Amino acid sequence: MLEAGTGRRLTPRATEIAAEARVLLEESGPDALTMRALADRLGIKAPSLYKHFPDKYAVEAELVAQMLTESAEACEEADRTAPGSLPALMAAYRTWALAHPHLYCLATERPLPRQALPEGLEDRAAAPLMRVCAGDQDRARAAWAFAHGMVILEIHGRFPDGVDLDGAWRTGAEALRG
Question: What is this structure's pTM?
Answer without folding.
Answer: 0.91
